[in-house]
Write a structure and sequence with these properties.
Helices cover about 40% and strands about 15% of the residues. By secondary structure, it is α/β, with parallel strands linked by helices. The longest helix is centred in the C-terminal third of the chain and has 17 residues, at about 240-255. The structure holds adenosine-5'-diphosphate and magnesium ion.
């Protein structure tokens, strides 16, 4: 199982949109077995996959709190054959606080330990993170092979990037030498000078940026959230859906250059 953290310290940059569409495309077009972990107490990825339940305690918080967790108890099926999910709700707030003060066993490796039992069952684990650095995010980074950082190019886009990069370096040194910063994904891209200069600036700062950006496609992406469907299913021909498809192709080529990415002829 290859584990990918979708992460940023900023909210509203399309972390959840990227996580659910990447999971959906890997599962459908590429026929991969995917486990999604909702690592945000807001539960937006859980809502998108129709499994959000504010009262259900069998969620991601258990990965932090239960020492001998039977992981099968917290994994839920979704409407999609190849996608399972570990959901989130407000329990994650308390779980984070309790983990932070519980030094009786290692705090950052709890996700990793809990997931070992299903590592052979899935090809990919996609973790949708909250815009934060807390115990559950450190756990996500400790169990991840790759980090993808969605970015909207605006006046504030680059705030916090250095802190995030430093955090990733720290986790790599202390807990997870196989953690790779795979790249920044420009979301809500508009072909204008600000966007194009922003991408240049990022590259000059030493950040790798995916060649494929995701176009701003307001109406369709908003509608898809109400329809509780990934945009790639809701409107597979709209700009954002087509871009996510190419992004996932690029992602697969990056992590396994020999991967045979099917060409379905869509432009
Ligand atoms: N490519 C896009 N074009 C237009 N709107 C988008 C696009 N991607 C995401 N959005 C919208 O931006 C908002 C934030 O996206 P979301 O994935 O929830 O961000 P995050 O998880 O980083 O907070 C949502 O309302 C979503 O519908
Ligand atoms: Mg989100």
């Amino acid at each position: 199982m290859q584990t990918i953290s979708i992460i940023s310290l900023k909210g509203g940059v399309a972390k959840t949109t990227t996580a659910i569409n990447t999971a959906y495309l890997l599962a459908t077009i590429h026929n991969k077995k995917v486990l999604v972990i909702d690592n945000d107490k807001q539960g937006n990825a859980s809502k998108a996959f129709n499994v959000y339940d504010p009262e259900d305690s069998y969620n991601v918080a258990k990965l932090l709190l239960e020492r001998n967790l039977d992981i099968g108890q917290v994994i839920k099926p979704t409407d999609y054959k190849n996608i399972d999910i570990i959901s989130a709700n407000m329990d994650l707030l308390d779980a984070n606080l309790r983990t932070t003060i519980d030094t009786s066993r290692q705090q950052q490796t709890r996700f990793k330990k809990a997931l070992t039992a299903v590592a052979d069952k899935y090809d990919f684990c996609i973790i949708d993170n909250a815009p934060d650095i807390n115990m559950s995010i450190m756990n996500a980074l400790t169990t991840s092979n790759y980090v993808i950082v969605p970015i909207i190019i605006d006046q504030y886009s680059f705030d916090g990037l250095d802190i995030l990069k430093e955090q990733i370096e720290n986790i790599r040194e202390d807990f997870n030498p196989s953690l790779n910063f795979l790249g920044c994904l420009i979301t809500q891209y508009q072909n204008n000078e600000v966007n194009n200069q922003g991408i240049e600036y990022l590259r000059n700062m030493g950040f790798s940026v995916f060649k494929q950006s995701v176009r701003k496609t307001v109406a369709k992406v908003n509608e898809s959230t109400f329809a509780k469907m990934p945009i790639s299913k809701y409107s597979s021909r709209c700009g954002a859906a087509q871009d996510y498809k190419k992004f996932v192709d690029e992602f697969l080529k990056l992590i396994s250059p020999s991967e045979n990415v099917p060409n379905l002829g869509t432009k």
